[in-house]
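Workshop exercise sheet. Pairs work together: one partner reads the sequence aloud, the other fills in the structure field after running the prediction. Swap roles for the next sheet.
Pair: D.N. / O.F.
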Amino acid sequence: MKACLASLILLASPACAAVFVLPRPVLGSPMVSIDLNGDAVNDVSVFFHSYSMTIGGVYVSGVSLFFGPDVEIFGTIPDGPGTPLIPADLFPGSILGPSTPVGTWSAPNNSPVSITSSIRQTSYHVTPFPSYTEGKENIFIGFRLREQEGYRYGWVDVQFTDPDPSEDSVKILPDINGIYLGDFHEAAVMVAPIPEPSQVLLAGAGLALMRMRRHRSLKKDHQRLER
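Structure field:
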């Protein structure tokens, strides 16, 4: 699988789901584009941005997520193509899969999920992040990826962190904890927070060790049968 500027962690289990971990947000960093299934088409692009608007003296910062042509989002585009998409409210334990109503999936058509805040520098009036993020530490953006064999389901885990004390408080950037993609086509997945990369690596190492021990045990059993 190709993951431009992002690291990919594969859990060594029968359902070998993929967790894509992105770098920490940095103002002015280039857009990060990720091909989730290795077909040479970018499925998710993440852009952390910060800019000033000359007219009105407005300073805007945040993150925008753009989705590729094979991805549908669990949410709505209230104002038409090209305008910000509003993801549906998901929480740990939510199920995404074939039983999710068809009418709740939206083809982005160049509509990003924009999670931005702004401040008017003349009056210091602050426009916060979108209302669907209010009071939440995490939001989960559900999606499904269309492939020839059917859909695979997953989500983007977005976390809201405390402002960096060394920065202006308006320069608060959400973190993308990671992107989860289920392994099986037409199989439901349960939404859950994506753990820290080190925890995922430890889990993967533990599962790999279990498989290695099981392989050794089967090999010994086979040797005993041959005797």
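Discussion prompt: The chain has one helix and 15 strands. What would you look at next?
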